[in-house]
Amino acid sequence: MRKLLAIVLALALTLTAAFLVLKVSDNPTKQIVGKWTNANTNFTLQFEKGGVAKFPVEAFDIEFGYEGDVEGSYTIDKADKKITFSFSFLGLDYDLTYFFNIKNDALTLRKQSDSEPNVYLKSK
């Protein structure tokens, strides 16, 4: 009887752990937290809990040709797989929305669903 109880308990713990891992890995709000670097441009995006983001403004399609690091916010629309960056730069407010995908340690951003991807790798 004790052996059966031990097996059932071990199975329950294994299933609970597997559920928690799958729940976290399927949640982009948790997956995105951390630093991500684009290998082609060396731009780094940093996402913090609570929706704070830090990034170089030149990582986005801003027409002015200026460089500078900004701190803004981000919101994730899980249903549409979109992320919106909100920030101010040179007195102007921006809300830039991108399609995104997180797979393993790669974050892919696209301005349009079929546009050229910008791929960022998660820093360890």
Q: Which sequence of SSEs, written as H and E, runs from N to C?
A: HHEEEEEEEE
Number of domains: 2
Largest sheet: 8 strands, antiparallel, barrel
Which structural class matches the secondary elements? alpha+beta
If you had to describe this structure to a student in words, what would you say it looks like?
This protein is of the alpha+beta class and 124 residues long. The protein has 2 domains: 1-31; 33-122, Lipocalin, CATH 2.40.128.270. 23% of the residues lie in helices and 43% in strands. It contains 2 helices and 8 strands, in the order H-H-E-E-E-E-E-E-E-E. The chain has an 8-stranded antiparallel beta barrel. The termini are far apart. 12% of the residues are buried.
Summarize this structure briefly:
With 124 residues, the protein is of the alpha+beta class.
Please name the defining characteristics of this protein:
124 residues; alpha+beta; Lipocalin; 2 domains; 8-stranded antiparallel β-barrel; 2 helices; 23% helix; elongated
